Amino acid sequence: MKKRGILNGPLSGAIATLGHGDLVVVADCGLPLARTGPVVDLAVVPGMPPFTAVLDALLDELIVESALAAEECKGGPVEEWIQPRLPSTDYISHEQLKSLTAAAKILVRTGEQTPYANVILRCGVPF
User: Fold this and answer.
1) Choosing from 13, 17, 20, 96, which is the catalytic residue?
2) 114 phi and psi, to 5 degrees?
3) 28 in a known ligand binding site
4) Is 116 annotated among the ligand-binding residues?
5) For the stretch 58-71, what's the b/e string if a residue is b when 16 or more beta carbons lie within 10 angstroms of its beta carbon?
6) Burial 32-51 (b: 16+ CB within 10 A, else e)
């Protein structure tokens, strides 16, 4: 058994395949997800697991070069969650964000029910 880090087998395995420039979507439970990459559905009940818990777990394991979130989240709780974790996040329309999910290598569905609780992470490299 793993000692630390992400314990979910499909998510842990998918993370191990990521390379520079790959996209990872962290989504609320309502975002329509394109079926281009593996969808790791962590949602158990409404609100569980929360967006922030999943994002924090991913940020502990990934090198993130950049991030995208929806303009529509600005001024609300989602921006408050994202800004301290990913201060250089760029914002695009929710429609643009939804269309970019088709390019993601991993799509992670949380139980979050807060509107626009979605972020796209672009993987970096440690060197």
Assistant:
1) 20
2) -80, 130
3) yes
4) yes
5) beeebebeebbbbe
6) ebeeebbbbbbbeeeeebbb
pLDDT in tens, 101-110: 999 999 999 9
90 is in an annotated binding site: no
What are the pLDDT digits (tens) for 55-65? 999 999 999 99
Burial class (CB in 10 A: 0-12, 13-18, 19+), 17: exposed
- The letter for the amino acid at 93 is S
Query: Which strands, in side-by-side order, build the sheet including 119-123?
Result: 39-41, 106-109, 23-27, 119-123, 64-70, 90-92
Q: Is 1 a catalytic residue?
A: no
Q: How many CB atoms lie within 10 A of CB 81?
A: 21
Closest CA to 27 of 101, 85, 108: 108
The alpha helices in the chain, defined as continuous H runs, are 9-15, 51-61, 77-85, 94-100
What domains appear along the chain, each with residue ranges and CATH number?
A: 20-123 (3.40.1650.10)
